[in-house]
Every structure is written in structure tokens, then in C-alpha cells.
Design a protein that fits this description.
homodimer; 227 residues; alpha/beta; 6-stranded mixed β-sheet; 4-stranded antiparallel β-sheet; 27% strand; binds adenosine-5'-triphosphate; binds magnesium ion
Chain lengths: 227, 227
Amino acid sequence: VIRLEQITKVFGEGTAQIAAVAGVDLEVRRGEFLAIMGPSGSGKSTLMNIIGCLDRPTAGRYCLDGRDVAKLDDDALADARRLAIGFVFQTFNLLPRLTALQNVELPMIYAGVGGRARRKRASDFLGMVGLAGRVTHRPNQLSGGERQRVAIARSLANEPSLLLADEPTGNLDSKSGAEIVTLLERLHTDGRTIVLITHEQDVAQHAERIVHLRDGRIVDDTARLDA
Amino acid sequence: VIRLEQITKVFGEGTAQIAAVAGVDLEVRRGEFLAIMGPSGSGKSTLMNIIGCLDRPTAGRYCLDGRDVAKLDDDALADARRLAIGFVFQTFNLLPRLTALQNVELPMIYAGVGGRARRKRASDFLGMVGLAGRVTHRPNQLSGGERQRVAIARSLANEPSLLLADEPTGNLDSKSGAEIVTLLERLHTDGRTIVLITHEQDVAQHAERIVHLRDGRIVDDTARLDA
Ligand SMILES: Nc1ncnc2c1ncn2[C@@H]1O[C@H](COP(=O)(O)OP(=O)(O)OP(=O)(O)O)[C@@H](O)[C@H]1O
Ligand SMILES: Nc1ncnc2c1ncn2[C@@H]1O[C@H](COP(=O)(O)OP(=O)(O)OP(=O)(O)O)[C@@H](O)[C@H]1O
Ligand SMILES: [Mg+2]
Ligand SMILES: [Mg+2]
């Protein structure tokens, strides 16, 4: 479902240029559960933004579901992204003036889901991440880990077939983190393709395959032995 | 140096009231290295904000260096905070229009440090957290872990005697995280008092004492056996 060929992303100009991603080839099959690990600054989030159609590569080709993403205009790209891809951002990116419930409803509003169904589903997703008691809170009334969980609930809103999660347990204690991993495993068993960036070995162990990045390149690609 | 007596912090009104911190007694001695752990939403950041004089308790008494903080007006509080306390925020709170170097310089500007000394020290602190190559980047040109490390460098700017760090390794891979823990240990050996909120057992193990929070209360307080 995802094919990246020689993907490169360069920031900046002249001598200050930084190749955040430097020639990555990666194929992810439909229904696969992949974890991406690597040092801070090794290009993981940059790569994820390209996969999620939030950024375009400087060079290389990206085919999503067999279609060359470079050939889609911005509107077609936004459509593909909105309905098929769920994204959990490393920095959450919640809207500060909306409640937790409204933040989770937002992708459904774009997808044209009616008000009552929307609120019911948003409330179910928040329940799934343990936030039933926080639905009317706004982001600045939530703890770090609660905001992270609202971001996770929001990514599930349109029941996307591809879920991209950038360090979804970084702000969670081990118990809440384990609950999120169990949730991801269930979503995977239901048939979704999941790409997960994580710094934690225990979280990565639940994926079927782990890819290691270093300085913008893939340096290791291992299937879990008992997968 | 820190004495909290029956500290309580309640948010909201009426039936929607939440006691984020519910009657905490805690003493931290000068030069101690304390870790605070607990589930997401258990009140750790709220407690830290009170210790750092960024928030006032709803009830209870907080004495910092023997002085009742409630008796200080906002200006005196800001002074105490600015010079003696270094704070690493869970959500970094960097200024988006300033470079990494300028963000680290900021507390020194408030402390009246001259331009050349400031830039040299800011650059040294950024070097200590492995960001010598990123000093001119602005926050949106930095990875999540790089922003976290700028926040750590900034907290050291005025060489504070009390360092409060809210999950400083949440966005770091194990190697960068270990480097930060080594840095904290060194700062502690130099005589600083350190209070660290963390979700990671390996990080907490480097403190001399671990306090566990649950639902706004202290449920465990253990000195490390070999400390
Ligand atoms: N807009 C930009 N301009 C210049 N450099 C950038 C920009 N965005 C990112 N970078 C650099 O690209 C590199 C890769 O960034 P990226 O966010 O992908 O890292 P990461 O692997 O996600 O790191 P972390 O684990 O810390 O989140 C970093 O060194 C960063 O400084
Ligand atoms: N302004 C506010 N209004 C209402 N409730 C709040 C407010 N700020 C925090 N809370 C609630 O207080 C509780 C404690 O929050 P706090 O940020 O201290 O938790 P935490 O232990 O730091 O959690 P985490 O590990 O997720 O960062 C949370 O359940 C949160 O929803
Ligand atoms: Mg990242
Ligand atoms: Mg917190």
C-alpha cells in the first residue's frame, strides 16, 4: 500500500542544507504493522510526514495505493489524506479552543458525518483511550498524556485504513502506554495498516517488523522472529 | 529547600471540580535528587507548577528556602523563580520566532547577563545537549527530541540551584535519553537540587528517591536502596 523509492527530503539552502531523509526505499504491505525507530533527529517524523501526504519529498517517488502521489494536486492529496489516513502527531496539534470531544469530531465534520453520529463516535473513541471523564475539557485543561490520548482518539475518527502514529506513548505511564499498544494491536487485527514511530523497545516489539533509521537512511529492517 | 504541607489544587467549579492535587505533604532537602512518577493525569505537572511558583495552590502551604510563598507578591515570586529555578516543561514552550540559541539566551537576558557572555554560555549549554549543529534553527525546524533538548538547555541558562524537569526524555531515543540523565547526574553532583517527573523506570533509578503519585496523592516514597 506504501511504496517509497529513493525518497529524499532536504531542508534549507546552500551550506546550511540538511538532508533529513537521504534516499529511503521502503515498501509497506496492506495490513502490515511496522515500527520505525532511530535516534533523535534521524528523520523519522520527516519520513512520516511524507508518507502521510503532509509534505512532498525533494526527490524520489512515493506511491500510495499504487498511485504516484506527486501526480495528485493539493486537493486530491487532501482528500486521500483526510479519509484514508489517520495521523497522531508527535506534538499532538489539538485545537486549543475546542473541547476534547470537538477535537475528535473535527475529522468527521470534514467527512460529512451528521452531528448526532459524530458526537456518539467521538465519545466512543475517547472512551477507548480512557478519557470518558474528560470530554468537555479543552487542551489546556488536560495533562500531557491526556492530550496525547485525545490526539490518538482523533486519528481514529474516520476509521482510516492507514494509521500513522508518531510516538503515541511518549507522554504516557507504562500502564496507559500498554493500553494504547493493546488498542493498536486490535486495530491491526481488524485489518488496518499501522506505521508507528517509537523510541520504546517494548512498544516496537508489538509490531511485525521494525525499521531503523540513522541520519536519514534505513540501516536495519527486521521482521520480528515470532511474527 | 522545598516544604509542601497539605497542598491541594482544585480546578473547575461545582460538580465539574477536579482535585488535581489532593493533600500532598512533601519535603525535599537541599541537594536532593528526587523523581516523581505516577499515572497519566495523577497530578505530577500540577504539583511541579506549584513547586516552580508558576501556579498557586487552592489550599495548603508551600515554603521555598524557608519562606512562605503565599506571602510573596507576584513580582517577588517572579524574581525567585527566574534566578533560582530552572524549569523544563512537558510541552517545551519554546518561543517560535527565536532560534535555539536565542531561546536559551532568554532567561539570561532577564537576569541581565551581557550579550557576549550570554551567547557563549547559550552555545555551551546547547553543546552539552548535543545540539551544537542546530543553534540557528527555529523550533519548527527542529525534531521533537531536539526541541526537548533546547528546553533542557534553556533551563540551565541561569545555573539554577533548583532544577525542575517535567518528563525531559519523553521524546528521546535511549541513547540521547541516557546522555540527558548523565548530564542531570553531573548537575546533581555539582550540588543542585533536582526534581524530575518521569514515566521511565530506568530514568527514575538514577534519582536518590522516588515518590509515586496517584489521583493527586502520594502513595509511595522510597529511597533507592543503594543510594
Ligand atoms: N524545516 C526544517 N529546516 C531545517 N532542518 C529541519 C527542518 N525540519 C527538520 N529538520 C531537521 O531534520 C532532522 C530530522 O528531523 P525529524 O523531525 O524527522 O527527526 P526525528 O527522527 O523525528 O527526531 P525525534 O526523534 O527527535 O522526533 C533534524 O535534525 C532536524 O533538525
Ligand atoms: N485547567 C484545568 N482544568 C481542569 N482540569 C485540569 C486542568 N489542568 C489539569 N487538569 C486535570 O488535572 C489532572 C492532573 O493533571 P496533570 O497535568 O498534573 O497530570 P500529570 O500527572 O502531569 O499527567 P501526565 O503524566 O499525563 O502528564 C488531569 O486529570 C487533568 O485533566
Ligand atoms: Mg520526531
Ligand atoms: Mg504531566
